[in-house]
Amino acid sequence: MPLRDHFRPPLSTQSSWEEVHGGWPMVIVQQLGKLLPPQYVAGPRVHLGSQAEIDIAAFDRSDRGLGHSTGAGGLATAVWAPAKPTSEFETELADFDEYEVRIYDTQRGRHLVAAIEIISPSNKDRPESRRQFVAKCAELLRQHVSVVLVDIVTVRDFDLYAEMLEWIGEKPESANGHHQSTYAVSCSWRPRGIKRWLESWNHPLIVGSPLPTLPLWLSDELAIPLDLDASYEQTCRDLRIA
User: Fold this and answer.
1) Structural domain of residue 212, as residue ranges?
2) What pTM did the predictor assign?
């Protein structure tokens, strides 16, 4: 079944891309449940980026008791005052959206073996967001967790897969000599003799064309098919998206 453009009219005026991103992980989990060997389990994870603010003024400093008597017979506590910081910046740590499925090996204490990342617009909108996302994926690969990236965001012209390759020091590949901003790719650091090679199965996604089936690696020797087209189409049917 064909990929739709969920970010432009007419579809964007009838449904929200967030509905697809939010529902797709659970459909993938349901389909993986029919294929995963008994020792593996899959679970969805949807986290919407937000900033939590703490109102420092809400705390009653007089109740802290620092540097004051502790009561009858109590001794005052000396407070160590550090020197002024050598630098200071008004900034925040980015808290970005996560739409993903994680697969665990229960025989190894629920050890994470694979992650399916459905890229959202906020993962691509700012340089710091892109760096944080690709750093997360690169770290998963370094821990020998296989990673699948699925990008159907048609309104942000950035290739996070290429940026991830650059992050780990590899030259980005080109898809038929053209820049790609929507794609599905499966990545795994796999052994070849005494060395490990980063292997990728990269498929550009085109609106109007089916999504691919990718290998989902659970171990160095075991992969199962990840049928993105079937799970995507089921998600669209559940949401009544034509």
Assistant:
1) 11-48+93-163+172-238
2) 0.81
